[in-house]
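Self-study notes.
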Amino acid sequence: MDKRQLTGILLLVIALQILPISDALAKSLSASLPVLQVIWARFFFHCLATGAYTAWRHGPRLLLPTVSWVLTARSCALCFAVGLFYVALHHMPMTTALTLWFVEPFLLTILAMVLFKEKVVPLQWLAVTLGFLGIVLAIRPSAETWQWSYLIGLAAGMGYAVFLLLTRVVESRIPAIVSVYQTGLVGCILSSVAVIPVWQAPSAIQWLQLVAIGCVAALAHLLIVKAFERAEASLLAPFTYAEVITATILGYLVFGDVPDRWAYAGLALIILSAIAVVPREPRREAAAQT
């Protein structure tokens, strides 16, 4: 594994420690504001922050949407995934929603293998599988607690897998911040129209939280874009489980979800599954040089 790939992994892990902050704010606000209004804030302030920086750094001409099926499809995928995930967050604990969200690494690895012909070695499959088993061990969802919102959470994870896959194929000559800005446009436009009938006037504190939801998510997705510019989707897939670490901590601090010993065992398994894929690349490269 070269330095560029390691940088991609590091950027992804950092991004996934930031992203749950936005999710926790969204879940908290959805108890007092319509979920659709929270979804609107996620995309509106995402585009406002990244658009302002894009105009300052690269000029206002890049604020015009790029006519590209890849960017449009990726924007639609993110809108679909985030919208459904916020609905799931409203109905269940953060860690339970992430359990369903983590169908994404399976799909991402399979799609990368089928569409991009990326080589997926047995150790990667094992790492992804063990990571998901770690999530199930940590959360232990049961048939007695099954509800319709679980299907929404699964659909959100599927949408996010498509988003990450399309992130991999976006042309690298597009500046990362411009790519992140344009990714939020579909969600911004659709949610700005849909939120009108259910709009409630936020308080000053709620306005600050709404702004933070979009800005924090935009920063996280900027790092994700940079990560996928540096490493293959199949290599990064096991590391997407890193998000559960901060999500579990915030679930405890903000919502009183107390992890038990099984949760800690599951987290240990998740971390080990991610570490397991790191040593394979140096050995393979060394073999290729002999």
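Second protein, same conventions, sequence then structure:
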Amino acid sequence: MGGDKRTHLLAPPGANPAVGRHVVTFHTRAFGESDIERRDDGLRVTTMERTSLDLARHLRPDPLLSVIEQVLQMTGKSDDDLRAMAAPWLPRRRWVRRYLEAVDRRIAGPAGESDPEVVVGQMLDARSVVGLVRQFAIDLPGYGPARFDLAVPEIRWALEVDVFPSHDETLGIASDLRRDEAARRVDWLVDRIGRGDYENDLVVSVTQVVERYRRRRAEFTRT
């Protein structure tokens, strides 16, 4: 869908709201007034959450999940809000079922803040990392409020997915080190996947992270 520059329209069966080479109309009865909002210029468009539902007809499961995370972050909606929006259109529509399955795959917690965070989270979940939550809020003594991208609070283990360039800059590196030290003082272990790890060695990096998670869990099991 990234290279699709056409205008996509929703319309009930038999309606033709627009024609042209760059217009695609999807005919369906599966939408209502609550799925539509009016822009300041008067144009009627689907809401962000409804647009994410329509994308279930085009996207694979992981990209669809990333879209859902973005919608949750930008709208403040909850998982249950998305389920309530989609469920009335469920019978006989496989794309709606795919959407609901994607919502159910979400890792617990607030919305992910980046696509790499979503990708890594799903990879950890597929490798049986138990108790995983997203965007875990914590107050670190000597540092202040912080959020871990991914965490298993019961064993005080966290993973940061550092793909933004600021993490490679002097100030970003210093801030990360200071936060990791503050976490260590309250017995939290923080692992990190950097931009180079993500872009060049993601599978290897995740495998190594999972091994450290398992060692951490084993330590807590023994104590």
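Instructor comment on the second fold: The mean pLDDT is 90.
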